[in-house]
Amino acid sequence: MVDEMNLKGRIMVEILKKGWITRKELLEKFGVAKSTLSYVISELKNEKKVKISKRVKGRGRPEEIISMNPNAWKTIGVKIGREAVVGVLMDASLKELDTSFEMIPHRMRNEHGSKELLRKVIDKLPKDGVVGIGLSVSGIVKNGIVVESPILNLKGVDFRKDIEGFGVSEVMGDIRSLAIYEVMKYGGDDFLVVNYGLGIGAGLYRKGKFSYLPIGHAVVEENGEECYCGKRGCLETVASDYANLKSFTNGNFTIKEFVEYEHEKYYEKLKELWKLSKEEREDIRKHYEKSIKYLGSVLGNLSFLLSPKKIVLYGEGTSTWMSRMLEERIKKVFDEKARVVYRKELDAFEKGAAYSVTIAAIKRGVIS
Ligand SMILES: [Zn+2]
């Protein structure tokens, strides 16, 4: 992610990750001469990119704290999700300044509709000082093109033209934006990131490289239910929000119907299930048993094969206890060293997209 970046850029990224940093920490991190570091820091200060303040630590000399100047630049992150298009405006210290959103009605769940709503969401945010826009889209994204997103009803869609004109623009898959959010907010250089909800997606982040793993469509039941992707017995047919809701409502609907009319027909009930599941209710847990079994098997095997340092679980459909149950199952059957962490943030996609565009702007010298 930050390789090929100059020292100045790497220092900025390090400050963004930590919030603030001392000279000593920077010297330890980058192993450069004291004079080199002083030169770069004073340059950053003169360009009004960083602020230097003093912190009194014990009885010794006050220590210098280096942090980003929040007014140095702004970025926008947007997520095109299943229910809504959500935008966030961030300052240079990665603090949220403003948000905007548009619900996606059923008739607009297509290329034309999502582009129109994207434009509206960006239009509603102030653009003064913005150096780039990052866009996070569910599905398979290659070189900025949304190759396939069955859940959003998009195929071969190019959003790059729709977000250009503000310096840097980046279109990325939703799981990649989660991985970047995780790196910047919590750190770590070796983890499996999972988004769990209506759909299930994962990615491996290792030493700055990201690989998308479409685990939601890994077949786990031969001759199982027909999935909306065209295959049979995909993980999503037995272990997603669809499966949990079907058990909870004792419903008689297919995953294809669920994906087609989720918002119109099932959303209220699904929200009720999410709420109850987060309350750790004993009577609700049974509706998640199958999901934990199958998702645990897929993640457990990945953990065994790839040995990531942690498995991070994001998504509206998950909860603290679910991540605990998953960890228990994975440890018991597949990989005793596995660690599953739950992140409750629901805005990690759009924020991750904004973080990503910030790093890209630093790397490309838009912010230098
Ligand atoms: Zn499938």
List its salient traits.
5-stranded mixed sheet, 3 domains, Nucleotidyltransferase, domain 5, alpha/beta, 368 residues
Helices and strands, with pairings:
Layout: H1 7-18, E1 20-22, H2 23-30, H3 34-46, E2 50-55, E3 63-68, E4 74-80, E5 84-91, E6 96-103, H4 111-123, E7 130-137, E8 140-142, E9 145-149, E10 154-158, H5 160-163, E11 168-173, H6 174-186, E12 190-196, E13 200-206, E14 209-213, H7 235-239, H8 241-249, H9 255-278, H10 282-285, H11 289-306, E15 310-314, H12 320-333, E16 340-342, H13 348-363
Helix pairs in contact: 6-13, 8-9, 11-12
Bound molecules: zinc ion.
Residues 217, 227, 229, 231, 234, 236 line the site of zinc ion.
% residues in beta strands: 25-35%
Query: What small molecules does the structure contain?
Result: zinc ion
Number of strands: 16
Overall pLDDT, averaged? 92
Q: Looking at the structure, what is the overall shape?
A: globular
Note poorly predicted spans: none
Number of H/I helices: 13
- How can the largest sheet be summarized? 5 strands, mixed
State the name of the first-level CATH class of the largest domain.
Answer: Alpha Beta
Amino- and carboxy-terminal Cα gap: 17 Å
CATH-level-2 architecture of the largest domain: 2-Layer Sandwich
Order of helices and strands: HEHHEEEEEHEEEEHEHEEEHHHHHEHEH
Quaternary structure state of the chains depicted: single chain
Number of domains: 3
> What is the percent of helical residues?
40-55%
Radius of gyration: 22 Å
| Sheet/helix structural class | alpha/beta
The main sheet orders its strands as 6-5-4-7-11
CATH superfamily of the largest domain: ATPase, nucleotide binding domain
> What's the CATH topology label of the largest domain?
Nucleotidyltransferase, domain 5
